[in-house]
């Protein structure tokens, strides 16, 4: 009876296999961070290094799905999401900076705003693929993975003359994907095997993501951080959602799911200030607000994507 109730609970929570472990780990990390840290093995599972290993394994699996047979459609879907997200970040970032300057509005600086809308948690996107997507969506995650590093933040801020791009960060992200693409095309059975592993990896990926989330960041970021998270998610509806629906001919859940912020977005203000110390007045507050965006967007986006699909199904548009 208990298993049946648990199964029903999981069915009611959007993307439960990744969201529930993530929330559980975030609560533990906030209130009792050492509860499950017994030795080096458990410490690794609750660390950033553990998350990076799981992400690397996941990216190999993602790359393996980008076979030559799927290449055209996967590239099409991934590039539409990639380019529309980039266009949104550039256009909205430019408008925000021109209207409000560096100080921004409601305590949200231009630095925090651009960093939030130009970042993406590809791990959560992969988790949602298991709930709503297909093998082509899984393959397209190799393209959207590029957004998960702070490249677009630097690209946008470079227009203002304050940032640079690190080639090593691109190579670090691309290498596991390239390895996956190579072996996935070399051996079909390897491709099929890794496609099945995604279902089982998601709870561990969710837990590892949650282990890096401290819910107290919501209080540090304040109400402005929550507002920034809402603005980040709302940005999906301007360019990316219509592009996903009308160009990709897809229901739109993928467009919404790439408007989260990855944990690495929090370090963007510090990196930018290394390039241009004139941003230092906004550094700490922007980092705190981005920490709030990471948490709030990770929790809200699965529910927003699920709600959007229900609306589309009920209204048939």
Automatic annotation (TrEMBL):
Any one GO cellular component localisation term in the record: membrane
Residue intervals passing through the bilayer: 12-31, 51-68, 80-100, 106-129, 141-163, 169-187, 199-219, 225-246, 284-309
UniProt KW Cell membrane keyword: yes
This protein's UniProt keywords: Cell membrane, Membrane, Sugar transport, Symport, Transmembrane, Transmembrane helix, Transport
Keyword Hydrolase assigned: no
Molecular function terms from GO: 2-keto-3-deoxygluconate:proton symporter activity
UniProt superkingdom: Bacteria
Family as reported in the entry's similarity comment: Belongs to the KdgT transporter family.
Protein name from the UniProt record: Putative 2-keto-3-deoxygluconate transporter
Originating species: Anaerococcus lactolyticus ATCC 51172
